[in-house]
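Lab notes, practical 5.
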Amino acid sequence: MINLAQSASASPLVHAVPTDPGTCWAEETEVAVDAPPDAEVDPAPEAVWPTQAPRTGVYGVVSPRVIIRPDGTYRMYYAQMFPRPGFPAGANDYDNVATRILSAISSDGLSWTPERGVRLTPQEGGAGEYRVVSAEVVPAPGTDGRLRMYYECCNGPQSSQNSIRSALSDDGGTVWKPESGTRFEAKGRNFVSPRIVFLENGSCRIYLSERGRGIISALSEDGGLTFHQEAGIRIALDGPYDSHVAFAPDILRTDGAGYRMYYAGYGAANRADILTAISADGLQWRKAADPVISPGNSRWTAAKCSEMCVYALPCRDGQARRYGIVYEACDGTAIDQRGVWRIANTVTA
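Output from the prediction step:
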């Protein structure tokens, strides 16, 4: 979560929440943003389709990230997957799918309306015909109201070397201009799902998932332009629910209680859960024994619950603070328990 209503500058306040969202989430799950139906040829970013329209996983929507805007409304950035020329399987063949970054808005954090226009195309973002995904939007340090988007840029299959790049926005997050160079990369290594945390001393930390290792971190002392990897692994691939993959950490800071991380874990190739861990310093993390959200609580989430974002909902007089969560949901209706990827949401129980 990035809360610009608490601070428009690069401050730890953008991650702060008054209470710990915890581990209990309502079982009711809704579709926040749906995938285009198979019959679409060039889906408009703002289009909305009937839920009953035929879908087999050719298109998909994934990787939701929410910012609370200065006026208290919400914008969600997400990636829409679509077929590349010559690869009609689309999202069911992720190595050969294309993605672009879109957005949706909400007044209450529950009902979402896709916005017109593309926030970032793969061509603009340096990925050619392949993928820009996992948009992390934060205040740009040392600027007056500018936003920076960190994103994963991959111009080939998942096994190829990729990079974390960035773009700037001067209009509050609608129009983006890619910055030159890369923010983080290493020869022969593959990094996904960048997440930024601003620290009290003015530096910032980026959390990343490195394929085959787990979640790592790196520090920047120059306003988030260059990062130097920190020693150790933040979340290792050593639990029953994250032995294959641990990625997409979403980190919140609670008053007097350190940090809570939500992250996605694959305990097997065909199952993903949303997991959690806590930390006093952002470096040493203690995992919870059980997932906070698991597959099977709705037809949208039959196979996988994955990359997520947690955020505070509007506070109602006399009621306890509530939180919303948006996350990737896969219905498992295609071969190997793939299928249609949608963005689902629910609230704290």
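Observations recorded by the TA: The chain has a mean pLDDT of 95. Residues 184 and 296 are 36 Å apart (CA to CA).
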